[in-house]
Design brief:
The complex is a heterodimer of chains A (511) and B (341). Chain A has 511 residues and is α/β, with parallel strands linked by helices. Chain A contains 17 helices and 24 strands. Chain A folds into three domains: 6-241, P-loop containing nucleotide triphosphate hydrolases (Rossmann fold, 3-Layer(aba) Sandwich), CATH 3.40.50; 246-339 and 425-511, 3-Layer(aba) Sandwich (Rossmann fold), CATH 3.40.50; 351-424, no CATH class. Classes of the chains: A alpha/beta (511), B mainly alpha (341). At the A-B interface, helix 10, helix 11 and strand 20 of A face helix 7, helix 8 and helix 9 of B. Chain B: It is found in: Cell membrane.
């Protein structure tokens, strides 16, 4: 029955929370020494499965075998005794303590059985860091480290417990692209050292880059297992979503005619308190029916650009016109009344109020428009009805009108934000990082809505640091670098090399 | 129907914690005294022994409930208003000053003037921290706390130096004209009818907070200010508005106390109503109708403890212990429900 090659075998693992089924039946076989990816959309049950493996949740059914032995994992300590180490998405480090202290937190080496032997601790930490080539200073405080370095400390912490099986839960979600590359290298090192790695992700590129085998789970069931080398990203995507996925964008061969400029920026400049120019004489225009993509590496003025257009921050010079009217001095509400829709880059920051209900979030700016007021008072029946309509229309999963929106997944929150902004039929839709943190299914939905908006004659200003997204959706591409628009290219004239160079500040002659 | 469910949900949590507190408290009382049943009977039921006791109980609850309802608005807008005491005193002193100074006016005119004066004084005191927070980012806790001291000392000056009733004992002002005294509650001679205002305002506040666009915007500003700004809500104005309401409610409590209970300004009239009301609002989960009930409960305990101390050897400070327990249990419940989610 059991294969001695396998370090971990799950059969028929199920988990219910009350009457909610989180996992129906998961089968999984992880071979010793491999990098195994568990891939699934948000809400497919990946996190629940991991929590079962590290003893945070108890399964409602099924068997777990570790090293051939059937085991019960009652709590995280039991898991670590077995040799299962977990690196959580959100770090569990003490910021004020050093790397070494964090590694040996709660089990410092002892001198005379009483005092902690700091020298021994630092030495052992250094040995561990060198063994895996992690390039960390054992005496540096955690608070002085970058996110990528902190993650390495987390990994080391698991390894210091002699974890045979290391579980990484969406480790790349918090990393920048170069840090992701580093992490993938680290995982390769771990495999060389004979550790088994279980890697949770929904990003297909990482699956291909890192893993030996991949198990896809969907709606709480394991649907397939592949040797990664034998399958394409599209195959995995199909298993994840359960149908063919079309992340296609604008069709290039269709001739489009655009209307007049809806939004026009002329010399928009914004400086910070220190006098540095966050936006440097930005001029651009978005025509009706057109998608203008703003490409750029994060932190080059995209946030400021969106806020200036939305009316959330002031500018020191320049003008903004909307449908020919100067809106430079208008408030957020006035701009929205003219027909500006705004999907902010960080949902939790500016897009929603987590503790309020789905209904109140989607209705927030639409009380009059959606006829929710009765003699000046909110009709709760009508509010619920409106929210239910939008939940259905925008396929917001797992939501009832009264659900606190903070309990939904990122993709479903984003759908609520988009539903709210589109309800007032804006003339211009300003969308910032629309698919950040979203899975494939939700991204597909968002792309679809953005393109449908443009086809309906709205102007769309798309700000994104995902180059593939810019290329998929835009009619024209503007590249922003250090607060300046480097060039505005027609989609047909743009290729990744040119745009990539501009994103890194190459001069205009590159275009 | 949904309104009824909301109401049930609002009172369920405090009622559960209160029951448990009383049970644990009973064990304590058993250890202290030979007559635990008598002590507990007095604590809880002596308030209902006579119409007179009942009236005093309602009078105790009135300012607590009004201030707590007001604080609900502030908290919902994200402002930690600890200035209830100062706002209460501002309302009380203004009503008294106007009543004494304009005593010659016909009561039909004088009554609305003193009431509005009291509300306005409280609201003004709420407006100051609101504006400072919105325009300059000044911490409202510090401002409201400091204002409490300023107002308390200033009223002390006024009552001692300006409108003192030299014929009476203690730091009390002259009486306001009898014509503008609040009538007592029908059938309960000792109870001022001010409690009715608290009941009405609790319901009105619920409607305003949860059934108007203004209320929704206020709560949006309170739960996520940056979100509120991004969807075009004048968030700063909502915050200031909430503080005006909070101060106004506390000011009204002061006005109604003077007109219905004290009939003059007494320097010691408040056993920390402002701070106790803060606890009431928090225990009620910042819900105006819940706040009415927690205020009634606190009033019951405060007055009951006095009766208990007279009849048995259980000290009055048991109440402090019980309120501590109550706060503990309410917060414990939050953790449990969080873990379930």
């Amino acid at each position: 029955m059991t294969d001695p090659q396998n370090i971990l075998e799950l059969s028929g693992i199920a988990k219910t929370f009350g009457d909610k089924v989180a996992l129906k039946s998961i089968d999984l076989a992880v071979r010793r020494g491999e990098v195994h990816v568990i891939c699934g959309e948000n809400g497919a049950g990946k996190s629940t499965l991991m929590n079962i493996l590290v003893g945070i949740h108890k399964p409602s059914g099924g068997q777990i075998r570790f090293n051939g032995q059937q085991v019960q994992i009652s709590d995280p300590i039991a898991a670590s005794r077995l040799g299962i180490g977990m690196v959580h998405q959100h770090f569990t480090l003490v910021p004020s303590m050093s790397v070494a202290e964090n590694l040996f937190l709660g089990r410092h080496p002892k001198k005379f059985g009483l005092f902690s032997d700091r020298q021994a601790m630092v030495d052992r930490a250094r040995a561990l860091i060198e063994a895996y080539n992690f390039g960390l200073d054992p005496q540096a405080a955690i608070s002085s480290l970058s996110v990528g370095q902190r993650q390495r400390v987390e990994i080391l912490k698991a390894l210091a417990f002699d974890a045979e099986l290391l579980i990484l839960d969406e480790p790349t979600a918090v990393l920048t692209p170069p840090e992701v590359e580093e992490l993938l290298k680290i995982i390769a090192t771990l495999r060389e050292r004979g550790r088994t790695v279980l890697f949770i992700t929904h990003k297909l590129r990482e699956v291909k880059a890192v893993s030996d085998r991949v198990t896809v789970i969907r709606h709480g069931e394991s649907v397939s297992i592949h040797n990664t080398a034998d399958v394409s990203e599209a195959d995995i995507a199909r298993d994840m979503v359960g149908r063919d996925v079309f992340l296609v964008g604008r069709k290039g061969d269709v001739e489009r005619s655009f209307g007049d400029a809806v939004l026009k920026l002329n010399g928009v400049t914004r400086t910070n308190a220190a006098g540095r120019r966050l936006l440097d004489a930005v001029s651009l225009e978005v025509r009706a029916g057109e998608v203008l993509g703003i490409a750029g590496v994060d932190g080059n003025g995209q946030t400021e650009l969106a806020e200036v257009i939305a009316g959330l921050s002031t500018m020191q010079a320049g003008n903004i016109w909307f449908d020919g009217a100067d809106i430079s001095d208008m408030t957020v509400a006035e701009r929205q009344a003219l027909g500006l829709g705004f999907v902010p880059e960080d949902r939790l920051d500016r897009g929603i109020s987590k503790t309020m209900s789905v209904a109140e979030n989607v209705a927030a700016t639409n009380y009059e428009r959606a006829n929710i007021l009765r003699r000046g008072f909110v009709s709760s029946a009508r509010l619920a009805e409106f929210a239910a309509e939008k939940i259905k229309e925008f396929d917001v999963r797992g939501a009832k009108p009264k659900t606190p929106i903070g309990t939904l997944s990122g993709g479903n929150m984003q759908k609520v934000v988009i539903a709210r902004e589109l309800e007032r039929e804006p003339r211009l839709l300003l969308v910032s990082q629309p698919t950040r943190g979203l899975d494939i299914g939700a991204s597909e939905f968002v792309y679809d809505r953005i393109l449908a908006s443009a086809n309906a004659g709205r102007g769309v200003l798309l700000i994104s640091s995902e180059l593939s997204e810019i290329f998929a959706l835009s009619d024209r591409i503007a590249v922003i670098y250090s607060g300046r628009i480097m060039a505005i290219l027609d989609r047909a004239d743009a290729d990744e090399v040119t745009v990539g160079a501009l994103m890194n500040g190459a001069g205009k002659e590159a275009a | 129907m949904t309104a009824f469910n909301d109401f049930l949900r609002a009172v369920r949590a405090p009622l559960g914690a209160i029951t448990l507190t009383l049970l644990l408290g009973f064990l304590l009382v058993m250890m202290i005294t030979d007559q635990p049943v008598l002590a507990y009977r007095d604590l809880l039921l002596a308030n209902f022994d006579s119409w007179s006791n009942f009236g005093l109980f309602l009078n105790r609850a009135m300012p607590l409930a009004l201030i707590a309802i007001g604080i609900t608005f502030a908290f919902r807008a994200g402002v930690f208003n600890v200035g209830g005491e100062g706002q209460l005193f501002a309302g009380a002193i203004t009503t008294t000053m106007l009543g004494v100074a304009l005593a010659g006016l016909p009561p039909v005119l004088l009554f609305p003037i003193v009431i509005i004066g009291g509300i306005a004084a409280g609201a003004f005191l709420g407006w100051i921290p609101g504006v400072l927070k919105v325009k300059l980012g000044v911490d409202e806790v510090v401002v409201t706390l400091m204002l409490n001291t300023i107002v308390l000392l200033f009223t002390s000056y006024l009552v001692n130096q300006v409108i003192r009733d030299t014929a009476a004992y203690g730091a009390v002002s002259q009486l306001v004209p009898k014509e503008i005294w609040l009538p007592s509650l029908p059938g309960v001679p000792k109870a001022s009818s001010g409690i009715l205002a608290a009941v009405v305002l609790a319901v009105v506040s619920w409607v305003v907070l949860f059934r108007t666009k203004w209320g929704a915007e206020l709560r949006a500003a309170g739960t996520n200010l940056r979100y509120a700004e991004a969807i075009g809500i004048a968030a700063g104005r909502r915050v200031i508005g909430a503080m005006l309401v909070a101060g106004g409610c506390a000011g009204l409590a002061g006005a109604l106390y003077v007109l219905g209970i004290g009939h003059r300004f007494e320097q010691n009239f408040s056993p920390d109503y402002g701070l106790v009301a803060l606890t009431c609002a928090l225990l009620a989960r910042i819900h105006p109708i819940g706040a009415l009930f927690t205020a009634l409960f606190y009033a019951l305990m405060l007055n009951g403890a006095a009766y208990m101390q007279i009849s048995t050897d259980v000290p009055r400070s048991l109440v402090d212990l019980l309120t501590g327990l109550l706060v503990l249990l309410m917060t414990a419940r939050v953790v449990i429900s969080r873990r379930k989610a």
